[in-house]
Amino acid sequence: MTPGVTQNAYRPVAQGSATGGSARTDCAGPPLALPRDPDSLHFEAIMRLLDRHGWHAAVLSHVLPNLMRHLPANEGARRAWLRALGEHWPQLARDMSTDLPNGAAKHAADDCGPAGLAWNLGVLFGSLQCWRLAATCFALWQAAGGRHHGALHNLAVSHWQLAEHEVAQRFMQDACAAAPGNDAYRRQLATMRAWRHTCRALLGGDRMLAYPVSTGTAAGRLHATLLGPHHAGALLRQQDDQELVRLARLEPLRTVAQARAWICAELDVPGKITLALMHGDDGLAGVAALHCDGDAASFYVWIGREHQGGGGRTALRLLKRLALKHGIRHLYSPVLEENRRSASLLLRAGYRPLAGVVEDKPMGAPYYALTLTATGSFDEDAHFKRLSALLATTGGHAVRRAVWPGMTSAVTDKQEASEP
Fold first, then answer.
1. Is residue 74 part of a domain?
2. Whole domain around residue 79: which residue ranges?
3. For the whole model, what pTM was predicted?
């Protein structure tokens, strides 16, 4: 399922100001001095205007159409706006929820009232891949507008992007009931059911948690589900740091269509299970893959920049759980010599470098190995044979060199390094 949020089940944005008309400020407090044409404002001017008026709900409604054009294509502006929004979110949430049940008819008729602002912010958060905030806004709108099929659909999409599949399916069922003639909803519901069946077959459920579960940090809230085409937009946005993509040796993606094609190609590889590493508030935070053959598997892990700092440890625990579930005893991963953070992470997790064993390619990366049920000594010869057999099934090849380039400066488990 690859839909975005429904934008037009309500009215998408306040159109009076967007077309040059006067701003409506009467429904959200005292009159405010607002520019007649917010389209002429650049991002910094919008932020100054919001700060000057204390992030008044009417001001935010007035400039929201312009923000919806600025933010999705500008990562720097997106981050600055979300940081500032975080400081004022409690106030805005209160404004949007005040008296909604008793004043639903009034608010649902006002684009600049709490209900209109909740809907439009939900659409904006969806375009920014901030799915927890999107779900919160659509839930607030639903409190004012009733069980409208568009709000139910948007709640389904938001929770689906958070890998809360059971909740998402329930909202989509409600959307189908509210709009029985909507074939798109029925197709999306069928896709959800089929996807949940695939997740249960490969993961044992809709998602996997890493143990021990930590809730103290953002990275500690990472969990995993299967990567699917519906993650294409989020995957593209997470690839904003091309250096991290290069170090993980992933294909750089430029468009949503390219991201979707890459995901589908991953799903088609026999013996490969590709995970979406999920953050509890933001949705997709990274990708990890396990390529299995017999009792051995190779893997890679990539964490987006926003979720660096502990996320790698969680990803390795998730991969270990997945490997044990599928009868894997030996894990292997190549790491570029310059990627010292990942090398340190693997060493701390118990992996050991296979001395002299590298990919058979120019500047091939050295391999690290871990036996999950170790009972004896670390047998490098056995690991090399097992790795060679594994790579033969994927079209790869490893070689054993007498001297591992850079071996004398390799990261040791005594060296400190920040972890991805």
1. yes
2. 15-152
3. 0.80
